[in-house]
Design a protein that fits this description.
With 423 residues, this protein is of the alpha/beta class. The protein folds into two domains: 254 residues, Peroxisomal Thiolase, Chain A, domain 1 (3-Layer(aba) Sandwich), CATH 3.40.47; 150 residues, Thiolase/Chalcone synthase (Peroxisomal Thiolase, Chain A, domain 1, 3-Layer(aba) Sandwich). Helices cover 31% and strands 17% of the residues. It contains 13 helices and twelve strands. Strands 5-4-6-7-1-8-12-11-9-10 form a ten-stranded mixed β-sheet, sandwiched between helices. The chain has a two-stranded antiparallel sheet with strand order 2-3. The longest helix has 16 residues. The chain is globular, with a radius of gyration of 20 Å.
């Protein structure tokens, strides 16, 4: 068994706040949001009116031939045929992480490079394909309908195109999915099974993927893009959906250094625990998340008082934010620790299964570049947040240790501890 130091050695972004590392970093520092007015069903007056939009891409056409993307990406037609809209974003994020991490085709196919992915598939394409089959009485079935629409679509398409022969797996724990994927990637590397694992999360931005949450009263009905997503605020009323894709590479530090790859942060440990209480609502006292945080801190060998920043899961829902608040108070406030806590979903919106990898990448930038994002849109902190340190502006302070939280349906909770890279 090989015990390795595990580092973040590559990033790729297609998000509402930027489509490359530099743009994302600027948005985080300047608290520049990516949320805009958005018509989920054009021509219909819906109560949900905003989303974290993806700029520079157009996937509104029902078929791939009508999609558009920024210059600089060459995507073969045989690859496009198997991609959902968020698969296009994931392909571009993969191209970025490969270039950033200085990977070659030989390394990708060496059997020591894995790929872990998460998405809900493409409900939009699934609806189109099933309607086509039904309306044609079974006479018309698109050959790529399955691989482009079901939850494993990113695994299938990316592994095949890039010739990845290491571990390939998909994770389906709702909004905790890619944080779990990162945790298991960490395990694969520390156990010596893989030298590196690419973790990719993506989601469609469409009414089929996002608007269905309105049935649970989980989406914000605030029409103001600048105020709709407001984690920890007394007047929050739900989350704002977003799509896109983010790719992050975890790697054995020695392998990354030998290749001259950039090192953004070191992953020290992780933890996970379930609420075991509700299919859709987090435990009111945040018990599962508190257990996951304790596991992550113990795994990393650090104490609550050593954490310099917590990137919260907080989505801006009344019950979810309150649950996380109580978990944070149990872990930190109860022992006199007051690290800055913020939720970057105020800027991006909630990326569902891609949220964990997206926000872990934000944490890596925070560690590498020396800043802590503030809580955008926080006007009236919920009185229940007493004892939490919720900065409203970016903190020009270099954190050394960061905790990342994620929670998902069914009570899944996963947390990561990252440290500034120190040789």
């Amino acid at each position: 068994m090989r015990t390795a130091r595990v580092v973040v050695s590559g990033t790729g972004f297609v998000t509402s706040i930027g489509n490359d590392r530099a743009a994302v970093s600027r948005s985080l520092r300047e608290l520049r949001p990516g949320i805009e007015r958005f018509d989920f069903l054009p021509g219909t007056e819906l109560p949900v009116k905003v989303a974290g939009t993806i700029k520079g891409f157009d996937t509104t056409a029902p078929q791939w031939a009508g999609w558009r993307w920024p210059a600089g990406y060459t995507i073969p037609k045989d690859v496009l045929r198997g991609l959902p809209p968020h698969g296009l974003h994931a392909f571009c994020a993969m191209e970025q992480v490969i270039a950033d991490g200085r990977l070659t085709a030989t390394v990708l196919a060496d059997g020591e490079t894995g790929l872990f992915c998460s998405s809900a598939g493409s409900p939009r394409l699934m609806r189109q394909y099933l309607n086509q089959i039904h309306d044609s009485r079974g006479e018309r079935i698109a050959p790529m309908s399955v691989v482009s629409s079901i939850a494993g679509t990113l695994n299938f398409n990316l592994a095949a195109h890039y010739g990845i022969r290491g571990a390939v797996a998909g994770f389906a724990s709702a909004c905790a999915s890619t944080t779990q994927a990162l945790g298991y990637a960490f395990d694969e590397i520390t156990l010596g099974r893989q030298r590196r694992v690419l973790v990719v999360g993506g989601e469609d931005l469409s009414w089929e993927s996002i608007y269905t949450f309105h049935g649970m009263r989980a989406l914000s009905r605030n029409p103001d893009p600048a105020r709709a997503s407001r984690p920890f605020d007394r007047d929050r009323d739900g989350f704002v959906g977003t799509g896109g894709a983010v790719a992050l590479m975890l790697e054995d530090a020695g392998a990354a250094q030998a290749r001259g790859a950039p090192i953004y942060a070191e992953v020290l440990g992780w933890g996970q625990a379930s609420d075991g209480s509700s299919v859709a609502i987090t435990h009111p006292e945040g018990q599962g998340l508190a257990r996951a945080m304790r596991q992550a801190l113990d795994s990393a060998g650090v104490t609550p008082g050593e954490i310099d920043y917590v990137n919260a899961h907080a989505t801006s829902t009344p019950t979810g934010d309150l649950s996380e608040t109580r978990a944070l108070q149990a872990i930190f406030t109860a022992v006199g620790a007051r690290p800055p806590v913020s939720s970057t979903k105020a800027l991006t919106g909630h990326g569902l299964s891609m949220a964990g990898v997206m926000e872990t990448a934000f944490c890596a930038l925070s560690l590498a570049e020396g800043f802590i994002p503030g809580n955008a849109n926080l006007e009236n902190p919920d009185p229940a947040c007493e004892g939490l340190n919720l900065p409203r502006t970016t903190v020009s302070q270099a954190p050394r240790l960061v905790l990342k939280n994620s929670s998902g349906f069914g009570g899944s909770n996963a947390c990561l501890v990252l440290r500034r890279w120190e040789i």
